[in-house]
Write a structure and sequence with these properties.
The protein is of the alpha/beta class. The protein has two domains: about 180 residues, Rossmann fold, CATH 3.40.50.450; about 110 residues, Phosphofructokinase domain (Rossmann fold), CATH 3.40.50. Helices cover about 45% and strands about 20% of the residues. It has twelve helices and eleven strands. The strands form two sheets. Strands 3-2-1-4-5-10-11 form a seven-stranded mixed β-sheet, with helices on both faces. A four-stranded parallel β-sheet has the order 7-8-6-9, sandwiched between helices. Strand 4, helix 5 and strand 5 form a beta-alpha-beta unit. Helix 1 runs parallel beside helix 10. The radius of gyration is 22 Å and the shape is elongated. The N and C termini lie far apart (about 60 Å). Bound molecules: 6-O-phosphono-beta-D-fructofuranose (F6P). The site of 6-O-phosphono-beta-D-fructofuranose (F6P) has 9 residues, from loops. Catalyzes the phosphorylation of D-fructose 6-phosphate to fructose 1,6-bisphosphate by ATP, the first committing step of glycolysis. Keywords: Allosteric enzyme, ATP-binding, Cytoplasm, Glycolysis, Kinase, Magnesium, Metal-binding, Nucleotide-binding, Transferase. GO terms for molecular function: 6-phosphofructokinase activity; AMP binding; ATP binding; fructose-6-phosphate binding; identical protein binding; metal ion binding; monosaccharide binding. It catalyses: beta-D-fructose 6-phosphate + ATP = beta-D-fructose 1,6-bisphosphate + ADP + H(+).
């Protein structure tokens, strides 16, 4: 193997650059040239490839976002578009591809592997919603950023004895809400995986106030509702409370990656190169029990479901329920 390419696809996630850097350095370690594909699958189809060296990735390692840029490119589901990408890779004399992104991005890696071009996935999304792996690059930073914002909100909430509903990202998954909510000591966490009753949340918050709490925090996952609709329904049942809603939105997606995101991204980037050298393709990497793991794209994505840490959700519910 002489030359591999790496791309980032879908929503950017802090730590993606650390993974790119590890691919570049592990490639160099084995005498393999590494090319960056700019703008994800769109750049793959257009042949937007540039050779990456240590100097290109050294500084980026610690930065949020993706130095390779990203694009959502649903057209890549089409066979003729996939063939164009295949031809571009062959024309550039590239032997294999590393795709850093979410499960949609892995389908592209699978399609190329089926065409006879070896490709491997690395989970990069703040949502932590990929089956098999317990962790995706960017999740840890997103939770830390959400928590920092919630902590700030709690200062002003306490000063006015208010109830705040804070909407966090996660697409259809409640992981960011659960982790940030537990860490912030939220009075309630509302996630798409679990049904909820508005009366129960109001009751829980009232009980907290009766126990002497100065303020109340409800962490709401975006997959349940937008914050304005939720606040309206909540306020209708809790007229005595002064309620405010905040959506943390893309604040959660930027910023310097945490050490955990950088370390796991580095582990996975290097391992992806090793897997390709061993002739593996059509798989993605992940973390299970703090160790690197490999998952078959077809088997895992179609058969397994992402598992949220329900134990943390239940813990939070028990701690705030009497
Ligand atoms: O997948 C990452 C994510 O940030 C989700 O949490 C969110 O639903 C979505 O991307 C937002 O996408 P966009 O930045 O395209 O609006």
């Amino acid at each position: 193997m002489k030359r591999i390419a790496v791309l980032t696809s879908g929503g950017d996630a802090p730590g993606m650059n650390a993974a790119v850097r590890a691919v570049v350095e592990q490639g160099a370690h084995h005498g393999i040239e590494v090319y960056g594909v700019y703008y994800g699958y769109k750049g793959l189809v257009e042949g937007d490839f540039r050779k990456l060296e240590s100097k290109d990735t050294q500084h980026a390692l610690k930065l949020g976002g993706t130095m390779l840029y990203s694009a959502r490119f649903p057209e890549f589901a089409q066979a003729d578009i996939q063939k164009q990408a295949f031809d571009q890779l062959k024309k550039a004399d590239i032997d294999a591809l590393v795709v850093i992104g979410g499960d949609g991005s892995f389908q592209g890696a699978l399609a190329l592997t089926k065409l006879g071009f070896p490709a491997i996935g690395i989970p990069g999304t703040i949502d932590n919603d990929i089956p098999g792996t317990e962790y995706t690059i960017g999740f840890d930073t997103a939770v830390s950023s959400a928590l920092e914002a919630i902590d700030r909100i709690s200062d002003t909430a306490a000063s006015h004895n208010r109830t705040f509903v804070i909407e966090v990202m996660g697409r259809h998954a409640g992981d960011i809400a659960v982790w940030a909510g537990v860490a912030a000591g939220a009075d309630a966490i509302v996630i798409p995986e679990n049904a909820y009753e508005m009366e129960d949340i109001v009751h829980r918050v009232r009980q907290g106030r009766e126990r002497g709490k100065d303020y109340s925090l409800i962490v709401l996952a975006e997959g349940v509702s937008n914050v304005d609709d939720f606040v309206e329904k909540y306020q209708a049942l809790a007229a005595e409370q002064e309620v405010r809603g905040v959506s943390l939105s893309h604040i959660q997606r930027g910023g310097m990656p945490t050490s955990r995101d950088r370390v796991y991204a580095t582990l996975m980037g290097a391992r992806a190169v090793d897997c390709l050298r061993e002739g593996k393709a059509g798989i993605y990497l992940g973390i299970q029990g703090e160790q690197l793991a490999e998952f078959d794209i077809i088997d895992t994505l179609s058969k397994a479901k992402h598992k949220l840490r329900q134990d943390l959700f239940i813990l939070n519910r028990d701690l705030t329920q009497r």
